From TrEMBL:
Gene3D superfamilies named in the record: Flagellar protein FliS
Similarity remark: Belongs to the FliS family.
Organism (species): Jeotgalibacillus campisalis
Location in the cell: Cytoplasm, Cytosol
UniProt key word Cytoplasm: yes
Keyword Cytoplasm on entry: yes
CDD domains: FliS
InterPro entries assigned: FliS (IPR003713), FliS_sf (IPR036584)
Name of the protein: Flagellar secretion chaperone FliS
Pfam families recorded: FliS (PF02561)
GO annotation (BP), single: bacterial-type flagellum assembly
Keywords: Bacterial flagellum biogenesis, Chaperone, Cytoplasm
GO CC annotation: cytosol
Origin superkingdom: Bacteria
């Protein structure tokens, strides 16, 4: 994912970005498990913190207008984040492996959806805006000069 530039990221659909986030979380969690096995706890901690950051970003990117699936994914993301924190505190490689298995299943399912419906996935990213996108749009808006003095 390091090869992706900002410009290239802006050209990707939200579905493709979700796929990249899954890949990044899986990579970080695999690295964290290896670090725990090697007793390199500081490095494992850094990687697990990145996994939690990715889980928050995945949750923030959900489109809750799409129905119950968004609520279910949010619950799964929160579960993974909570258990990753627990694995980090306890330095429990098995618990981290359990979360890795869930992430790999999610990623595989997501990739399969993108393969079977590539046209729909590309257009779906342009139809609506996610809560994350709405938040960014509000933050980037220029402030009202009349309100600046308040």
């Amino acid at each position: 994912m390091n090869f992706l530039t900002k410009e290239l990221l802006y050209q990707k659909s939200s579905q493709e970005l979700t796929s990249y986030l899954y890949e990044a979380a899986i990579t970080q969690l695999k690295d964290a498990i290896q670090m725990i096995d090697r007793k390199q706890f500081l490095e494992a901690n850094k990687r697990m913190q990145k996994v939690n950051d990715i889980m928050r970003r995945l949750g923030a990117g959900l489109n809750y207008d799409s129905g119950i699936i968004a609520d279910q994914l949010d619950a799964v993301y929160n579960y993974i984040a909570q258990k990753t924190i627990e694995a980090n505190i306890k330095k429990d490689a098995q618990l981290a492996k359990d979360m890795l298995a869930i992430l790999e299943e999610l990623s595989a399912a997501w990739t399969e959806i993108l393969k079977t419906k590539p046209a729909a996935a590309k257009s779906a990213g342009k139809i609506g805006t996610s809560q994350y996108e709405k938040h960014i749009m509000v933050q980037e808006r220029n402030p009202n000069p009349m309100e600046a003095g308040k």
